[in-house]
Amino acid sequence: MSNAKVNIGVIGAGGIARRRTIPGMLKAKNCRLVSVMNPSDPEQIAKEFNVPRAYRREEELLADPNVEAVYIASPVQHHARQIVLCAEAGKHILCEKPLTRTLDEARKVAAVCRKRGVLLQEGYMMKFHGAHAKIKELIDQEKLGRIVYLRAQLSCWYPKIAGAWRQDPKNGGGAMIDMASHLYDLTEYFAGPIRRITALAGNLVQGYKVEDASTTLLEFQSGAQATVDCFFCIPDAASRSRLEIYGSTGAVLAEGTIGQSSGGKVEALLGMGTKGYDAKQSKDAPRKFERIAFPKINPYTAECSYFADCVLRRQAPDINGVGNSLRMMTLIEKAYASAKTGRAYSLPTTTATT
Question: Which domains does the chain possess?
Answer without folding.
Answer: 6-124+300-320 (3.40.50.720), 126-298+330-346 (3.30.360.10)
